[in-house]
Every structure is written in structure tokens, then in C-alpha cells.
Amino acid sequence: MTDFTPISALLGGALLGISALLLLLFNGKIAGISGMLNAAFSKQAGKSWRISFLIGLMIAPLILSHSQWQLPQHIETHWITILIAGLLVGIGTRIGSGCTSGHGVCGLGRLSTRSLVATITFMSVAVLTVFITQLF
Amino acid sequence: MQIIIALISGILFGLGLTISQMVNPNKVLNFLDISGHWDPSLALVMLAAVSVFGLGYKILIKPESKPILAQSFSLPSKTDIDKPLVIGAIIFGLGWGLAGICPGPAISNISAGEPKILGFIIMMLIGMKTANLILAKSNK
Questions:
Q1: Which pLDDT tens digit goes with each residue over A79-94?
Q2: Would you call B12 an interface residue with chain A, using a CB distance cutoff of 8 Å?
Q3: I need a surface site. Which of A73, A94, A111, A121 has the fewest CB within 10 A?
Q4: Domain check: are B71 and B81 in the same one?
Q5: What pLDDT sits at residue A19?
Q6: Are the beta carbons of B92 and A99 separated by less than 8 Å?
Q7: Which domain covers residue B61, as residue numbers?
């Protein structure tokens, strides 16, 4: 069980928006994490800024290591579920051209119909998936 | 300079994920569990992120012809709702619902040293490679 944390949610969400805005305003790029990951591990050119963003994403929690905001130390979900979930997230974000960041934040912010359809679809399927797994 | 901006942007994104606690899969799963102990936090995270980005996009980016440090804006050009978009979103939603982890939080969680996160990331990269092969084949 987790508590509703409206202040942290709004503050954190605003930072996500500022981050995506900065990247688009200065570099002209969309902050889509699945796309960056795919490109960072492929042979295509223009990887360096993507790797740089991903490093920032990775080191950010260390900056907060003395604050109230910590990373979870233990993940309860079973190993097999984690591995299947990882595979599905990888396949789905490639075929559907984006994840929560690219579609859910940047796409919705630009009022893209494609991203709206994608976000409603993955949100609904995720809610349904949780509902079904809770039955077992 | 673009590398520095990307690094700062990545750090801000990671701070946002950590402060909003979207790095905690339980928090995500409790948001998705609308029939259980519903935690609506993620809705506010999305609301704040989309509002800030959307407003900034309208005021700062739309009127400009090019970004400050690059030649042009790299924005998606596709507008049609096609099969891959919906099928991909369904597959992603299934994976997200199973573990409560999406690509951004997976990367931000690396430093906690939980081996399950590394397992998730390796499988995600394998999934991406697999999807790339499928997409390349279907485009022929």
C-alpha cells in the first residue's frame, strides 16, 4: 500500500515537464526514453546526446540520496513476471513508437492524436492487467 | 553544448521521477489498481508534466522556427492511427501492468542495485531488438 502524495506528485511532474521542454527548446528533441534506449544500443549516428540524457536519468537519484525521496530497495514482483514484463515493455514501446514519456508527456502536451490513442490504450490495458493479476 | 543540455535534462527527468516516486513500482501499481487501495498520485504527476510541457510548448516552442542549439525540431511526422501504434500500446500496457515499471524508472532505479531492475532492462533491450527485426521484416 502507498499513500496519496499530491505535493511530491505535482512537484515531480512539473520537473518532468521542464526537462522535456528544455530538451525540445535547446536541442529540438523529444524526451522519449524508450526511443533513446533503443538508439543508444544500436549502430545509428547521433547517440551521444541520448547516452548523456540516460546518464543524467541514472545519476539523478544519487543527488537526492540524503533527502526524503529514495529509490525502492526491494522489488516484490516475482522474477519471472519481471522478465516477461521487461520483454513486453521492450517490444511494445518499439512497435507502438513510444512509452509513458514520449506519448504520455510530450505527445499529450503537443495535443497529438496518435499519442492520445496510445496513452489511453496502454493505460487501459495496464489497469485491466492489474485487475486480473489481483484476482490470483 | 547539446550534450550538456541533454545531461541536465536527463537529471531533471530523473529528479522528477524520484520526487514523484514513479520510481517505486508499488506506487505505479497502486495507481493502476483502481478497484483496490487506489493511490491517485500518478494522475497528478501526468497532469503537472503535461500542463507544464504543453504550456511551454505553446508559448516557447510553437512560435519558433528552430531550436536554440540545433537546425530543426525533430518532431514525429506521422499522424495516422495505425495498427502498430495500437498493438504496440497494448503490449506495452500489458508489460507495464505486470511489473509497474516503464523505461524511465527502470534506468533511474539502476543505482539502487536491485538485480531485478537489471533483469528487466536486459529483457527490455532484447524486446526492442526483437521488435526492430519484426518491423524491418514487415516493411519489406
A1: 999 999 999 999 999 9
A2: yes
A3: A73
A4: no
A5: 98
A6: yes
A7: 1-75
CA separation for the pair B89, A31 (Å, rounded): 18
* Phi and psi, residue B120, nearest 5°: -60, -45
What distance in Å separates the CA atoms of residue B7 and residue A129, rounded to the nearest whole number? 34
Residues of chain B scoring pLDDT < 50 = none
User: Which of chain B's residues have a Cβ under 8 Å away from the Cβ of A25?
Assistant: 56, 60-61, 64, 67-68
Mean pLDDT along residues A51-68: 97
The reply to whether B66 touches chain A by the CB within 8 Å rule is: yes
* A chain contacts of residue B35, beta-carbon cutoff 8 Å: 131, 134
Query: Could you give the number of structural domains in chain B?
Result: 2
How far the first Cα of chain B sits from its last, in Å, is 38
- How far is the C-alpha of A38 from the C-alpha of B123, rounded, in Å? 12
Question: Is there a domain that residue A1 lies in?
Answer: no
> Given A21, A75, A97, which is nearest B52 (Cβ)?
A21
Compute how many other C-beta atoms are within 10 angstroms of the C-beta atom of residue B87: 15
Average pLDDT over residues A125-130: 97
B133 in A contact zone (CB under 8 Å): no
Q: At what angle do helices A33-40 and A48-63 cross, to 10 degrees?
A: 120
The C-alpha cell at B137 is 521484416
